[in-house]
């Protein structure tokens, strides 16, 4: 069981140099997360010098809060015996996760030093495909036989509790480990001592399969307010659980990935923090889409060049081009954000395309009316006294600008909804195409709408 947060040490305590004894004292008096934050400023060897001689349980908790790449670097500096001791003390899911990230030579070095049960547990957990429920589950859970009495079940939980991640839920299994039901600790405490587990267990178990997507499993925990979710194999046998804290980590990871993709940042989310990631990796993750979109952006320049005569005749149109482009980008991004989120939460699917477009059309028409009126008033106010070419009036030019902006709002909103839905239909990530591609497409359509409206109404 993780500790409750304690008062955090001051910044000066976290970073001030001092003896290992002082840092160990800091670790023992602080919450493991705060201690890990304080130690993260040290070199990997120095971190182990501090953690080596403290209580193994506390050491494992602090180590689990270190940044993943710091964990890997630290393990890489350890002798095989210390490496094996550290991994042996870790919870099964954290141990398997760390083992996946270790270099191959470190894996080969540490496996022979581990107990056979731990080796098999690592092999089994790391055998599942990354991103699945099986890859993030832990084998550290409590099981009960359906024929046990409540008194015997409570006694068994007392025995196994120190080695289990949670005992609030105990899972009822048969001799083949097939999942029959579950009981909560509250159920056991309130039940008669001579009742059997079978009498009080809940048979309507919510579970997931090892092959299910990890995000789907986390969403189940979120939806049903579960403390843990049992994971079964294709035969219905219980093989692990995903706890609520792991679900939070999964959802946070998925949100981070969506945010990065939404802003056209490629590559994995990474295991380092922002400051620890080398600048060239940031460049590598960003440059691809930016170069591609910059090349596509040349189309905007071609359009402006084609309508150069129009701008020359009515130069005031150039002053309001940024307003039309920005408004289209803003409304399109809003629409894309709403649709991407609805897709991520499974509120809609690509089959709902016409319903989504109809709803966004209704929203966009209202927004277009409001923003069109504001644009007309803005032009009439800001451009009073401006030099207007003969044959034109400020009112007619304001009408062109406001009408073009209104049409841009409608088209940008519909494009913002359609792009992620199309991507989802093609089995692509909706977030990847939603924002950066949207901005470029909306800029191009906005310029075309702007200039064709001017030609149509002003005859230029």
UniProtKB/TrEMBL annotation:
Keywords: CBS domain, Cell membrane, Magnesium, Membrane, Metal-binding, Transmembrane, Transmembrane helix, Transport. It is found in: Cell membrane; Membrane. Coiled coil: none annotated. Signal peptide: none annotated. It is a multi-pass membrane protein. It comes from the Bacteria. Residues 1-20 are annotated as: Disordered. The chain crosses the membrane at residues 287-304, 356-377, 397-419, 431-452. Belongs to the SLC41A transporter family. Acts as a magnesium transporter. Homodimer. This is Magnesium transporter MgtE. It comes from Chloracidobacterium sp. N. The lineage of its organism: Bacteria, Pseudomonadati, Acidobacteriota, Terriglobia, Terriglobales.
